[in-house]
Amino acid sequence: MRRPRVPKSGRTGREAEGGAGARTGLPAPPAWMRWLPVLYVAGVLLLEPVTPVEWPVSFVLIALPLVTAFAHGPVAVAGATVFGVFMEGILAGTPCCAGRPVGYLWERYYVAAYFCTGLVGVLGTILAAHRIRRERTLADVRFVADIAQRVLLRPVPHRIGDLLLESLYLAAAAEARIGGDLYEAVPTPYGVRLLIGDVRGKGLLAVETAAALLGAFREAAHDEPALPDLADRVETSMTRRATQLGGYEAGERFVTAVFVEVPAGAKLIRVVNCGHPPPVLIRSGEVRELDSGRSAPPLNLGILLGEPYHVDTYAFRPGDQLLLYTDGISETRGPGGSFYPLLQRLRSWRSLPSQGLLERLHHDLMDYSGDRLQDDIAALAVWRPADGVAVPPPSPAG
């Protein structure tokens, strides 16, 4: 699905199905960096004939091994070292247009240059070997992160009953492919139950909290007949988990979340909002936030609630689409510092096929932010096709 201008950290649900299990190779350096040694030598050869004998430019070939080590391996660096010494000897023993005589080949300054080039070559070879090892380690870490994300944020089913689903996850940093944003869709005896959430904080603690929340939701979604009871049970699990972990941040380890239930055979949805950006309903001629103004506190802050979770019910008819998202989308900033106008964009895309919504949102976010996301992003789109509408097959995994 994802083709032009896509960061390494971004993936849609369909892509995660096929891409998370394949180990990626070492990152390829930019083309200009690979050609830098050739350009460096070409510059020396162009400058040497016009340089007076007091300032022989061939001495700068001492740096050739290090220039090569930026983008090439130890074998290439060793070859560049031998080539550099050879070229220094050629330039030292060849007369040129500036009137330089023959006979400098074994002059002591040039011999010192040969020695220094060889020494720098040894250091450059070690540096290149170390860089290759670090790049392999980073590739392994990214591979493990992909697998961890696949376990934590497993791809949602493309279709559950009469609903079509798509997911999107974008990490703000390419090296940190997992974070505290989460989503899930579970078919249950009570209908399809959806969750999207955003864990406070970053790093391993946020990932651990997200994993605990998803585990609690996946289990409780099948057991609790009422959506408020489901939210309450997840809240209890989160509070217990935070207490077990301890630490001075136990009381601040909270998660904003939205629980949604789409009952089978009913043209409606039920929503419990726990301090999260409200879902957006997209209907022909209408785009609106489903916000009743009665949001509960975030999970693990339920002690502040004082009353049962409030359920809001909305119509969800054939042809409607529901977008659940984290605040990384609405808080994405453009070059001028303005926030991403999500509702305005959605209203301009009303004629867009429903299955293309997250793809379009993905590319538009990258364009708006200049490929520089400030926060992780997760989104879940649910579409109930109108009666008689042909549903295209899922896109191939990218």
TrEMBL record:
Region named Disordered: 1-23
Name by which UniProt lists this protein: Serine phosphatase RsbU (Regulator of sigma subunit)
Stored InterPro entries: Bact_Sigma-Reg, PPM-type-like_dom_sf, PPM-type_phosphatase-like_dom
One Pfam family from the record: SpoIIE
Keywords, comma-separated and alphabetical: Hydrolase, Membrane, Transmembrane, Transmembrane helix
A molecular function GO annotation: phosphatase activity
Residues annotated as domain PPM-type phosphatase: 163-384
